[in-house]
Every structure is written in C-alpha cells, then in structure tokens.
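Listing S7. Sequence submitted for prediction.
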Amino acid sequence: MPKLKRLSRENQEMVKARLENFFYKRFELDLSSTETDFTLEFIMKEIGPHIYNQAIEDACKTVRLQMDVAEEELYVLQVPIN
C-alpha cells in the first residue's frame, strides 16, 4: 500500500493559513501555530486517505472510459473477411 506523501512546505503553509482563516471566520477561534499544525496533521491522517482513495477511484473510472473508446476505435480498424 502506498504511503501518502506530505504536502510541500509551500502548500502546507498555504493550507495552514486557510485553516486559520476558516476557524477564525467560522468559529471566531484564533488558532496558534501548534494548534494549526495538529489540525492539519489530523486532517491529513484521518481524512486524507479517504480523499486519496476517491481520487484513485475517479481516475480508474476515467481510464476505463478511455479504454472503452480506444477499444471501439480499434474494432473499427478490423478488415472484413469474406
């Protein structure tokens, strides 16, 4: 089973800023840097795998659809046998 990768530092900082903004606007909570780190860690650990797995399922569906189209296009290329 693949291990989920960590966010790049740039993305991590962006997500942390958005989390802090969300909690402040939604709940009027002013999260400390440590609280934001723990919140992001929780989301990545507990929710991240569900989102990742759904993305894999969506990608598989897309590939299956593309393979169906490719298969149809290949059958069109068959030479009729008399």
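Caption to Listing S7: primary sequence and predicted structure tokens for the chain studied. The two ends are 51 Å apart (CA to CA). The longest helix spans residues 33-76.
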